[in-house]
Structure formats: C-alpha cells, structure tokens
C-alpha cells in the first residue's frame, strides 16, 4: 500500500499534465487553422523562456556524458520538431532518471527495488515522448494532405502552374507540422531551386503519405502527364486511407473502455457487494 499511493499520485499528476498539454496543442492547431498567429510563440520557445537556467544546466550535463554511435537520435529529433539538440537530450535523460530515483527515497526500504525501475523508466521517457511526437506529426500530415491536394488540383484545373499551386496550398494546412513541411518546400523554390529539386528533397520525408505525394508530382513533372488528374486520384486515395484509419481508431475505443470497467468500476462493485456481505456475516 505504501508503494501504491505514490504511484497513483504520480499517475494522476502525469495525466493532468498530459491533459493540459493536449489542450494547448488543440488551441494552437485551431489558431493555425484560422490563420491567427499565436502571440506567445511556439511551445518550444515558451519553454526556453520559462526555464533558461535549467535548460542550460541540462545541456552542460549532456556535454559531460560520453557519446556513442548507437545512441544517435538526430533523425528522431528533426522528425519530432521539438527543437532539442542531441546534447540536451542526453542530459535530459540522465536528469529525469536521477530525479525520479530521488523521489522514491522517502518511501523507505522499498525504494531499493523501486528506484532502479523508476530511473530506467524515466531514462527512456524522453525518447518515448519524441517518438510519440514524431508519430503524431506524421498523422497530422496524413490528415491534411487530402485537402491540400484538392486545392492544388482545383488550381491546376484553373490554369495555375505547379509552383503557384504549391505556394497557395499553404492555406489548406490545418496543422503546424504540415505547414512547416510545405513552407520548407516553397522556400526552396523561392531561393532558386527548381520544382523537381524541391520535390526530390521533400520525397525523403519520414511520412509515407508525403513521400507518395512528392514522388507522384515528381513523376508527373518529369513525364509531362496531366497534373490535375493525377492530383485528383491521389486525393481520393489519401481520403480513403484517412477514412480507414479513423474507422480502425473508432473500433479500438470499445477496447479502451474495458480498462476503467475492469480495473476501477468492477473492483469497487465487488467491494461494495462482497464486502458488505462479509462484514454482515462476521460476529
């Protein structure tokens, strides 16, 4: 029981922080969709302004740690969009492991078993958070692409070129991650690169849908095929894929409902029924 109380308290605090973080992300996405700029800046900049000293200390801690080739997370850091450096990630992993291990010390002798487990979990938590953020960004890009491709197809049908269609497609971006990818592509074109070079560079994106989109446009641009018809077919394909993903996600909701039913509602019901019977039969 002494171990269960701190574990439940830590889980409650983590759930509350996750709730507020998701609320902030939904607000940011809604502001970006409406075209309203967030005055506070991005989440990464806001975190740097709040704790500049802590971030610097964690970075210096990461510089003191040895670096190995097997722990290179440069691609993951770039894909997640957090703005962290490899040095900061190494320091953050060690600092979080030390803090979580120290939190278990007041428990007593049980901390000898609990502290290594908490330290190992906290050491892997930043990497898990980065992978989760990268997966969320890929999902956001996949959900935005059908509307972007529809707008490009309409522009191409009206006589616009591929360069102009890509520049105007920024208005259909509903998430900051999608807007960042499209802005990077358009910026390369404005700096002097050709459309094929910008598409070839964007075709190496981790998102499967973005790679498919760029490679399709690249082949159409090289072969001279009608781009508007191809864009319309790709938009229909991506929209069907998005519908299937949403259907699969909705089908998993019934499974998630079983967890509170089995671990919270059912035990309390058993305690109320069987406990009262046992207490009534005891002399």
Can you tell me about this structure?
By secondary structure, this protein is mainly alpha-helical. The chain has a domain at 140-249: Type II secretion system (T2SS), domain F (Receptor-associated Protein, Up-down Bundle), CATH 1.20.81.30. Helices cover 79% and strands 0% of the residues. It is built from twelve helices and no strands. The chain has helices at residues 4-34, 43-50, 52-64, 74-80, 86-103, 111-157, 162-168, 176-190, 195-202, 208-223, 227-251, 253-281. α4 packs across α6 (111-157) and α5 runs antiparallel to α6. The longest helix is centred in the middle third of the chain and has 47 residues, at 111-157. The two termini are 27 Å apart.
Question: How is the topology of this model organized?
Answer:
Elements: H1 4-34, H2 43-50, H3 52-64, H4 74-80, H5 86-103, H6 111-157, H7 162-168, H8 176-190, H9 195-202, H10 208-223, H11 227-251, H12 253-281
Helix pairs in contact: 3-5, 4-6, 5-6, 6-7, 6-10, 6-11, 8-9, 9-10, 10-11
List keywords for this structure.
mainly alpha, Receptor-associated Protein, 283 residues, 12 helices
Quick structural gist:
The chain has 283 residues and is mainly alpha-helical. Helix content is 79%, strand content 0%. It is built from 12 helices and no strands.
CATH superfamily of the domain at 140-249: Type II secretion system (T2SS), domain F
By CATH reckoning, the class of the domain at 140-249 would read Mainly Alpha
- Globular, elongated, flat, extended or rod-shaped: what is the shape? flat
Low-confidence stretches: 38-50
Number of helices: 12
**SSE run:** HHHHHHHHHHHH
Number of strands: 0
- Architecture (CATH level 2) name of the domain at 140-249: Up-down Bundle
Kindly state the percentage of residues in helix: over 70%
Distance between the termini: 27 Å
């Amino acid at each position: 029981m002494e171990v269960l109380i701190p574990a439940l308290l830590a889980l409650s605090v983590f759930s509350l922080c996750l709730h507020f973080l998701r609320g902030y992300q939904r607000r940011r996405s809604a502001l970006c969709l409406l075209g309203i700029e967030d005055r506070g800046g991005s989440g990464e900049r806001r975190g740097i302004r709040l704790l500049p000293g802590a971030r610097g200390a964690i970075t210096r801690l990461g510089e003191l740690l040895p670096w190995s080739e097997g722990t290179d997370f440069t691609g993951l850091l770039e894909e997640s969009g957090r703005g962290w450096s490899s040095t900061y990630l190494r320091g953050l992993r060690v600092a979080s492991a030390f803090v979580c291990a120290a939190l278990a010390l007041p428990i007593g002798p049980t901390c000898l078993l609990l502290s290594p487990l908490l330290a190992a979990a906290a050491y892997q938590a930043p990497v898990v958070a980065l992978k989760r953020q990268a997966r969320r960004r890929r999902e956001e890009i996949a959900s935005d692409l059908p509307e972007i491709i529809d707008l490009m197809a309409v522009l191409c049908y009206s006589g616009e070129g591929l360069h102009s269609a890509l520049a105007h497609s920024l208005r259909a971006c509903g998430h900051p991650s999608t807007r960042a990818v499209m802005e990077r592509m358009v910026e390369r074109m404005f700096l002097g690169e050709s459309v094929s070079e910008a598409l070839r560079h964007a075709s190496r994106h981790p998102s499967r849908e973005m790679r498919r989109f760029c490679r399709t446009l690249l082949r159409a641009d090289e072969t001279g095929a009608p781009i508007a018809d191809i864009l319309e077919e790709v938009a229909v394909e991506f929209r069907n894929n998005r519908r299937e993903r949403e259907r699969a996600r909705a089908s998993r909701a019934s499974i998630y409902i079983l967890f509170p039913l089995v671990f919270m509602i059912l035990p309390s019901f058993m305690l109320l029924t069987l406990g009262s019977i046992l207490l009534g039969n005891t002399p």
